[in-house]
Amino acid sequence: MGWRERGRADGNGCWGNSDNSKEEDAGRKGRGSGEKEEEEEEEEEEEEEEEEEEEEEEEEEEEEEEEEEEEEEEEEEEEEEEEEEEEEEEEEEEEEEEEEEEEEEEEEEEEEEEEEEEEEEEEEEEEEEEEEEEEEEEEEKEEVVVVTVGGAEEEGGARSGVGARHQACRRG
């Protein structure tokens, strides 16, 4: 390739295709500026992608935090439910204990009533026995022979007093 074909002009006045050489230089410069623009665009795209990734990461972190908060709330609710269940169980136990105490008190009252009834029956029996004894004493008193001036009364074949002695003498 000759110097004419290359289109290069030198400083000695040798003519060549200097316009072509300028165009080539401009093309080279244009290509260089185009590459810079592409690089800048690529950098901008990369930055945008990085920003998007960061935003996505932040969103994921926020979602994780929300999930953790929800889990904590659920745990708290479960704890509250457990506490309520425990309280209900305690109340039921207390109610059962109260019922047992009431039953025991009722049994004691029934036993006391039975004892009182037994005591009343014993008292009635004692009163009846006393009445019977009094009746027997009265009967015994009635059987006693009453001595009079004119003689004696006979009860059950028994004789006493002066008249009895007289009758005994007669029999003798």
Offer a concise description of the structure.
The protein has 172 residues and is an all-alpha fold. It has helices at 3-6, 18-143, 161-171.
The number of distinct β-strands equals 0
Into which percent range does the helicity of residues fall?
over 70%
Q: Structural class of the helices, strands and pairings?
A: mainly alpha
- Tell me about the biggest sheet? none
| SSE topology string | HHH
Uncertain segments: none
* Cα-atom radius of gyration: 70 Å
Summed up, the helix count is: 3
Beta content comes to under 5%
Shape: rod-shaped
Number of domains: 1
Structure description:
The protein has helices at 3-6, 18-143, 161-171. The protein has 172 residues and is an all-alpha fold. The chain has one domain (3-8, 15-130). The longest helix is centred in the middle third of the chain and has 126 residues, at 18-143. The model has no long low-confidence stretch (mean pLDDT 79).
Topology:
Layout: H1 3-6, H2 18-143, H3 161-171
Question: Main attributes?
Answer:
172 residues, mainly alpha, 3 helices, 0% strand
